[in-house]
Amino acid sequence: MSTKDRVDVVTIVTYIVAVYVATIAIQIYQPYTGGYFNLGEAVIYIAAILHGPIVAAVAGGIGASLADLSTGYGIFAPATAVIKFIEGYLAGWLIWRFRDKARNIKAIVGALIGVLYTFLLILFAIYYWSGPTYIGPSQILSLTITSAYLDIPVYVWIIIVLVIGALLSYVLVKKLVTAWEPLALILAGLEMVIGYFLYEYFVSNPLTGRQPIAALAEIPVNIGQAVIGASIAVPLATWLVRAGYGGRKSD
């Protein structure tokens, strides 16, 4: 095994663990489908930006499905393995395929994307995140856990969102990354949204006695998951690149 192969294996394993940890660290239960909101997308997207499609695909598929299996959401594990694998590969492929062509996008486009992200985040903060909620897994490896119960006012979420949106806009305007990258991540995120809707509609909801049409309720949650994941991944990946970590060249 060459040095490059060893590095690639270590990188993939590292991101599998990181996806797993990010996915179980914050789990907000969605009663209509039995699924949950999580931050795993952020790590998948970081892997896609820094290391390309293979690392992001393998880390996403394995790390996220292991999280489902170990925290009481096993019914989603088969779908998660496929959906997150495709999502990670698509994100990495889109970014690396079109990165050079996207470098001439003007800063104003980046600013507009940042404003749009901020607007979407505010909508999700008002309608889906504020108020009382349980955060964290209810079980890990069959061990029952008392999840944290938080009641976060909407104005706190809005402040958090404005900070995230301002940071993202700054990064895009300064062209520390191309404006294409967040767009590529959202396109990959749409695959995740559609994939889970189809699985919940045709498989998991019927198996658990829920109405198939209830799968519609999780569409905005999963869109928010993709948007937040991209909002975290883009600035953090940029910081990692400036710190000398991660690749920036095409295959």
Summarize the SSE layout with pairings:
Blueprint: H1 3-25, E1 28-30, E2 35-37, H2 40-51, H3 53-70, H4 77-98, H5 107-129, E3 131-135, E4 139-140, E5 143-144, E6 148-152, H6 154-173, H7 180-207, H8 219-242
Antiparallel strand pairs: 1-2, 3-6, 4-5
Transmembrane segments: 12-30, 42-67, 73-96, 108-129, 154-173, 180-199, 219-241
GO cellular component, one term: membrane
Keywords: Membrane, Transmembrane, Transmembrane helix
Could you describe the 3D structure shown?
By secondary structure, the protein is mainly α. The chain has a single domain (3-242), classed as Orthogonal Bundle (Arp2/3 complex 21 kDa subunit ARPC3), CATH 1.10.1760. It is built from eight helices and six strands, in the order H-E-E-H-H-H-H-E-E-E-E-H-H-H. It has helices spanning 3-25, 40-51, 53-70, 77-98, 107-129, 154-173, 180-207, 219-242, and strands at residues 28-30, 35-37, 131-135, 139-140, 143-144, 148-152. The strands form three sheets. A two-stranded antiparallel sheet has the order 1-2. Strands 3-6 form a two-stranded antiparallel ribbon. The chain has a two-stranded antiparallel ribbon with strand order 4-5. Strand 4 and strand 5 form a beta hairpin. The longest helix has 28 residues, at 180-207. The chain is globular. The model is unreliable at 1-6 (pLDDT under 50).
